[in-house]
Design a protein that fits this description.
6-stranded parallel β-sheet; alpha/beta; 40% helix
C-alpha cells in the first residue's frame, strides 16, 4: 500500500524534483484581463503560483465565473511540469467582489458592533462564497491599526484599538477558514504587515517610523492574535518601508519578526 505523506513532506519532496525555472514559475502571478490562452502559454511557460480574480467582477453569472476559473486552472496545471494548481486570490473585505455575492459593511463599520461572533459568521459566508467559485485565498481581514484619519484607507480597518482589532480580526479569520466547499477551503490573508497606516503624513505607501515597543504592542498585536488564536494561513506584506527598510524585502521583518518571533508558519 502506498504511504500517505503529510503535506509538508510532500512539499519537500516536490521541491526536490523541481528545477529553478519551475520554482520561479511558482513565484509569479497571472492577472487575466481578459484571459488569453496564448498569453498564458507565452508568458507563463511553467504555470503560475497565483491568479488574481479581479476580472470576475465583470462577469454576469456564477456559472460564467466558475467556468472561467476552471479553464484557467486547467491550463496552468497543464503548463506546470508537476501539474501544480495555482492559488486564486480574491478581495474579501466587505464580501467577495463578484455579482450575486453577499455584501457587508466596511471594517470600521463592523468594528462598531463590538460583536466578534457576528464577525465570524460574516467571515464564514465570505470564505464559503470564495471557495464556491474556486478562490482559495481571501485578501482580508485588514488588521492595520489606524490612528491618522488623513490616511485614505482608514475605513478598511477595525479602528485605533489593538484589542478590538485583534478580537474582530481573529474572528473573521476563523470564519473564512472554518469550512470549505467540495474539498476547497479558503485561506485568510491578513494585511498589511506591518504598521501600514502609521505612515508619514497619512500618505499611502510612505515610510512608517515606529519604535520597537510600539510596533510589537500595538501594530503587531492583531496579527499575533490571528496567528496564535485564529490559525492564520497567509499574510500580505505592506507597501511601505518601516523605519527606512522596505517591508517586502526585509528579512528582519518578514522572517525575524513574523516567522521567528511571532510564530507564523504559513
Amino acid at each position: 500500500m502506498k504511504e500517505i505523506k503529510d503535506p509538508e513532506s510532500r512539499a519537500i519532496e516536490l521541491l526536490s524534483q523541481m528545477n529553478i525555472e519551475e520554482k520561479m514559475g511558482q513565484l509569479v502571478g497571472y492577472y487575466p484581463k481578459p484571459y488569453s490562452e496564448e498569453e498564458l502559454e507565452r508568458e507563463y511557460p511553467h504555470g503560475a503560483g497565483q491568479v488574481a480574480c479581479f476580472a470576475m467582477r465583470e462577469m454576469k453569472t456564477l456559472e460564467e465565473i466558475a467556468t472561467h476559473q476552471r479553464m484557467i486552472q486547467d491550463k496552468i496545471m497543464e503548463l506546470s511540469e508537476h501539474h501544480i494548481p495555482a492559488i486564486f486570490h480574491m478581495e474579501g473585505l466587505c464580501g467577495i467582489l463578484i455579482r450575486e455575492a453577499d455584501g457587508f459593511p466596511s471594517g470600521i463599520g463592523r468594528a462598531a458592533s463590538w460583536d466578534p461572533e457576528l464577525e465570524k459568521r460574516i467571515g464564514f459566508v465570505v470564505g464559503r462564497e470564495a471557495a464556491a467559485v474556486g478562490a482559495s485565498m481571501v485578501l482580508a481581514p485588514v488588521l492595520d491599526i489606524s490612528r491618522d484619519s488623513r490616511f485614505g484607507r482608514q475605513g478598511e480597518t477595525y479602528g485605533e484599538d489593538p484589542v478590538l482589532a485583534a478580537s474582530m480580526g481573529t474572528a473573521y479569520v476563523e470564519g473564512i477558514q472554518e469550512k470549505g466547499v467540495n474539498g476547497l477551503r479558503a485561506a485568510a490573508a491578513a494585511k498589511h504587515f506591518l504598521g501600514y497606516h502609521n505612515s508619514q503624513g497619512g500618505i499611502h505607501a510612505a515610510n512608517c517610523d515606529i519604535p520597537y515597543r510600539l510596533l510589537r504592542e500595538v501594530y503587531a498585536k492583531p496579527f499575533q492574535a490571528a496567528i496564535r488564536k485564529g490559525g492564520l494561513k497567509t499574510v500580505m506584506p505592506c507597501y511601505s518601508s518601516l523605519n527606512g527598510e522596505p517591508v517586502s524585502a526585509s528579512r528582519e521583518i518578514l522572517t525575524g519578526l513574523l516567522r521567528e518571533e511571532m510564530g507564523f508558519d504559513g
